Amino acid sequence: MAFKRVKLRIKETIITVITEEKFIPVAEKEILYQRHFLENYIENDPLFKLTLKPYIVPYNAPEIVKRMVEESAKAGVGPMACVAGAIAEYTLKAIIRAGAKHVIVDNGGDIAMFINHPVTIGIYTGKNNNIGFKFYPKKSIIGVCTSSATIGHSLSFGKADAAIVISPNVTLADATATALCNSITRKDKKLIENSINSLMMDEIEGMMVFIDDVIGMGGNLPEIINVEFNYDLITRG
């Protein structure tokens, strides 16, 4: 079975999809579909896009909007903190429904996977750490979401080079990674430990934080291995 790696650019969304080629159109269709709901909703409720705090939306809001509100509230952040994870998760689920047995969706470092053979995910912090996770096949979705205060253009109130959260709930993982990164305001092992413990909740499997030469870990993390980075494979704008 041959898998294809394709980078999709749909407006502001830049996603890498790895799966059988026949499922790539499914990914494109789902991204457009979910973006349509989000864009139309934001046009009528612009505060949804701007708020940095948990938010309330009407009962008849689109499913993805309600899902972002629900999961972001658990982490204490605004709904747009998990937009990348939500789109990655919805795209992954659409491809699975279409029949894929192995698929990886990487939305700028927020990754949703359903795999039938081992996969290695490198952790990019902007520094030469050469650390990655080795994931093995399982019957559930795997979410690996990362937030950074030093890489990319996302808003962060912290100083972590990378805050990684692993959960089968990809949207929640993205929101929690944002909250975790926000909380790491200095290089302090005790602060990192307290931040991880305060955000550990149902569905969160593990967390990892990098800030300069300090690493913090919590929960049950996958196998940690040394990796050789191919920077051309990083999904970015």
Question: Could you characterize what this model shows?
Answer:
This protein has 237 residues and is an alpha+beta fold. It has a single domain (4-227), classed as Roll (T-fold), CATH 3.10.520. It has six helices and eleven strands. It has helices at residues 24-44, 47-50, 63-75, 83-97, 170-183, 189-199; strands spanning 4-10, 13-19, 103-107, 110-114, 119-122, 131-135, 142-147, 162-167, 206-211, 214-219, 223-226. It has an eight-stranded antiparallel sheet with strand order 1-2-3-4-7-8-9-10. The two termini are 29 Å apart.
Index terms:
three-stranded antiparallel sheet, 237 residues, eight-stranded antiparallel sheet, T-fold, 33% helix, alpha+beta
Helix-strand blueprint:
Layout: E1 4-10, E2 13-19, H1 24-44, H2 47-50, H3 63-75, H4 83-97, E3 103-107, E4 110-114, E5 119-122, E6 131-135, E7 142-147, E8 162-167, H5 170-183, H6 189-199, E9 206-211, E10 214-219, E11 223-226
Antiparallel strand pairs: 1-2, 2-3, 3-4, 4-7, 5-6, 6-11, 7-8, 8-9, 9-10
Helix pairs in contact: 1-4, 3-5, 4-5, 5-6
Name the overall outline: globular
Backbone structural class? alpha+beta
Helix amount: 25-40%
CATH level 3 topology = T-fold
Q: CATH homologous superfamily?
A: ApbE-like domains
What is the alpha-carbon Rg in Å?
Answer: 17 Å
Tell me which oligomeric state these chains represent. single chain
Total domain modules: 1
Task: Produce a short descriptive summary.
With 237 residues, this protein is of the alpha+beta class.
